[in-house]
Amino acid sequence: MDNLLPAQEAAKIYHTNYVRNSRAIGVMWAIFTICFVIITTTVFIQPFWIGDSVNTPQAGYFGLFHYCIGNALTSELICKGSAVDFSSIPSGAFQTAMFFVGTSMLLIVGTMVCFSLFFFCNAGNVYKICAWMQLASAVLMVMGCMIYPDGWDAPEVKRMCGQMTDKYSLGNCTVRWAYILAIISILDALLLSFLSFTLGNRQDKLLPDDFEVEGAGKRA
Fold this sequence. Notes:
Elements: H1 6-45, E1 50-51, E2 60-62, E3 67-70, E4 77-80, H2 92-113, H3 123-147, H4 155-161, E5 174-175, H5 177-204, H6 209-219
Antiparallel strand pairs: 1-2, 1-5, 2-3, 3-4
């Protein structure tokens, strides 16, 4: 019983490497998911989705809900907007975009919370739950990024960017880093979702069938 046949030894080595590689990739996935939580939170909070340029009538910048516009007389920035007060958000499109991006952020935070399920549930099922959450987060982020420019015709935006500003046309303003980061985060979420689905499928079958059958046959 102590002497394993060569085929069984090879299967044992394969299984050991398979589990080791899956765990290493799983740790990388968890680290990247935590980084993605930080990215989406930053994208949601920071008011630097669009901003002024050298040709704009007023200085300022806009986020999903918070924005600042310069005073024409003193050049001092006057800031308004709150995530808990929809009436303070200058455009219905900004409100909708904030909802989608905020929900996307909450789903990714929920994915991190799901890490605790690895101690109680089947790892393959947990990976697949997280994969669907990350995929949904990517879809919501896409919707938020697509809807946001629909609010560029708001009076407050035109006051900063000029009267040539319209839906999906920024006039004299420019896209800022938070908007670019939001677009990049879509690709990140899709990659994490794909990796999570892959890890879930790998966890479903850690032992090869031929190893189990061959071992059972020899014992018989």
